[in-house]
Amino acid sequence: MTTTVGFVGLGNIGKPMALRLAQQQEAADLEVWVYDVAPDPLAEAERAGARVAESVAAMAAKVDVLCLMVRDDDQVREVLGEALGVAGDRLMVVIHSTVAPHTPAELATTASRHGVKVLDAPVSGGAMGASDGSLALMVGGADEAFAAAEPVLRALGSKVVHAGPIGSGTKFKLARNMMHFIAFTAATEAQRLAEAAGLSLKDLGDVVRHTDAITGGPGAIMHRETTATLDPADFWHGVFTNVTSLGVKDLGFAIDLAHELGVDVPLAELAIERLGPGLGLPAEGEH
Hints:
The protein is an alpha/beta fold. Helix content is 54%, strand content 15%. The protein has twelve helices and nine strands. Helix 11 (235-261) packs antiparallel against helix 12. The longest helix is centred in the middle third of the chain and has 29 residues, at 168-196. The relative contact order is 0.09.
């Protein structure tokens, strides 16, 4: 049975997501409608096979699933408000925008008064992942709502995680992006050290991307179900003891070099203290 999908917000990531849906219409048994205030991305989506709606309200009156990829919480509320005025109780709204942690639940409560279901499904993978369908989608919402929207979600990405009840997708995305941007900040610290040591920053970036593709980067340590302190008999206790030993050694050398070169490395100094405990090993002096 064909699912009618509406997509609102054809920006840097929204446009390739909408184009992906348009390209997948036959394979995924979809009929795709799009809306944006800018005419150029609408024309591009129409050339890709999507249909252009006159307004959010006109779209909401005819689609089964309404995907939102707009700028912020206020725009999500505005679009949802326009949709609820005309939506029937068959409508499923999927919020792809990254919003505040409690916004999805608040909007779901409002929508439920109109018989409308809401999922929060922020994405990770950027414009490239949106273009080739390799996005990760982190989804929050009831089981039946997730099941209804799943064909659309799987047309958009290659990794779809039902994280839990409404709001879970957003909290999942915030945890993922917290690591992302802390890692970016750590990279800037490493660049300052490399620059002071007379090294090529471009070569350093090439090596980081090369080895992270092999090892999995920070995700390589994320296999446990809990952050609790490890039992010495646990398999991961031995693994993370070795990781911590190597990490403290290398961080110590890097910090010494930074001090020698006059480079401030506060994240490295924090990491050398928190690496072991963060991995579940007792802090020094604890048993």
